[in-house]
Amino acid sequence: MTMNSCASGKEENTVLQLTHTAGGHTLHHNNVFSPDGQWIVFDGRNDDTKIGETSVIGVVHVKTGEEKELYQTKNPTRYGPGVGAASFSPVADRVIFIHGLANADKEKPYDISRRTGVAIDLERPLQPVFMDARDITAPYTPGALRGGTHSHCWSGDGHMISFTYNDALIEPELRTVGVMFDAGRPVLVNAFDGNNSGQLYAAVVADVVAHPQSGSDEISKAFDECWVGKDGYTDGAGRRIPYAIAFQGNTVNKKGETITELFIADLDPEEILKDTAAVGIAGERPHVPKGVRVQRISRTGRGLSHVRHWLRSSPDGRFIYALAPDDKGIAQVVRYAVSGGQATYITKNATPIDYSFNLNKEGTRIAYVTDNNVYLYDLLKHANMRLTFNEPGDLKIAGAPSFSPDGHLLVYNQYRPAGPQQYLQIMTVAVK
């Protein structure tokens, strides 16, 4: 392992290069560690935009650096099928990742509306489990969707999975969010090119429209969500909501400007299952089923940051963390109260946070990247600590740093030289 030390005041942090093989090792923005903290999952991308050209999902052992291949696509081409964005269940040795459609070719390449969620168990590598069903032949099967799911994220108990979704048949550009869960039986669909059955029941949970009314709560895009609380939250009426996701929604303010605000979708899986008509008919997008209650959390006027990021929740579900611009337009971490939507700026950096960030399991620390360095913000001490000391011109850090389950290790991606090439490798830094 490659090693160098980084010191800030009395603190000293050792940075290690964990992976060394000639190839990309892209980390997803969430749940990259196995529940026991021993393995880290990655995909073979060396460029965030190249999922369609990527064929490998792998894991690396935290202590030994041993790499293992979990999955490889059959007959990969530059057009797909493609795999990427892998994350572990918080309660089982199972990962889920994006998988492009098997019929991908030059005329029908990997695309935002042509992908699904596939799982692999550590003890059964190379044996894909298709999680969400895809059915593009009307009449549609309840519990199946007809587009592409992406950026899957497990609930705290591992029972549900959220995702973003683009429909393949109606207004594919209108992104929304959805969830899937075990209905007690698989969702079986007709055999057809582009269809696949799935183990879980899926539904969209946010309505989107192409042209939201100015000043309304209508949204043109729902995206980049998180689960609220480790096991739900208590709403303003004192009701305990076991499952809810917070998501970003593009609205149009009274000035006619598109801005991004926070929304929460409360979920009742039993009621979702009952509303089989929500699957929709030919010529319609899937509907939001009964059992979903969406409420708007923030009314900022300024909106969230345009920097791509996913929301994060405090473990108790009281707060949602996001990126929002300060008075100078610099993207900072901001905490929003779920009850009332009050915003509190957490960071006060001179340079913008450049991608997603993560909280530790206890919700007391935030890890993020700015100015090509990893930082740790302690929410209890209100203290910011720099963990890496890259100089101008050093190779780029990419993506979001992630905490190990015990909170004592951070992992992140950085390009490292390998002969004349540069590859995304997994770096680690211990935190006290």
List the defining traits of the structure above.
single chain, four-stranded antiparallel sheet, five-stranded antiparallel sheet, 432 residues, Methylamine Dehydrogenase, Chain H, 1 helix
Description:
There is one protein chain. The chain is an all-beta fold. It has 1 helix and 32 strands. The chain has one helix at residues 269-274, and strands spanning 2-8, 11-17, 39-43, 56-61, 67-72, 83-88, 94-100, 115-121, 124-130, 133-134, 144-145, 147-154, 160-167, 176-181, 201-204, 221-227, 233-234, 240-241, 243-252, 258-267, 292-296, 312-313, 319-325, 331-337, 343-345, 358-359, 365-370, 373-378, 383-386, 397-403, 409-418, 421-430. A 5-stranded antiparallel β-sheet has the order 1-2-32-31-30, with no helix packed on it. It has a 4-stranded antiparallel β-sheet with strand order 6-7-8-9, with no helix packed on it. The protein has a 4-stranded antiparallel β-sheet with strand order 12-13-14-15. It is globular and about 55 Å long.
Fraction in helix: under 10%
User: How many helices?
Assistant: 1
Number of strands: 32
The N- and C-terminal alpha carbons lie at a distance of 21 Å
Instruction: Fill in the CATH topology.
Output: Methylamine Dehydrogenase, Chain H
Shape: globular
Poorly predicted residue ranges: 1-10
Query: What is the averaged pLDDT score?
Result: 95
Strand content: 35-45%
The major sheet is characterized as: 5 strands, antiparallel
> Architecture, CATH level 2?
7 Propeller
Structural class: mainly beta
CATH class categorisation: Mainly Beta
CATH fourth-tier homologous superfamily: YVTN repeat-like/Quinoprotein amine dehydrogenase
What gyration radius follows from the Cα positions, in whole Å? 21 Å
Strand arrangement in the largest pleated sheet:
1-2-32-31-30
The total domain count is 1
InterPro entries: 6-blade_b-propeller_TolB-like (IPR011042), DUF3748 (IPR022223), WD40 (IPR011659)
Protein name: DUF3748 domain-containing protein
Pfam families: DUF3748, PD40
Family: Belongs to the TolB family.
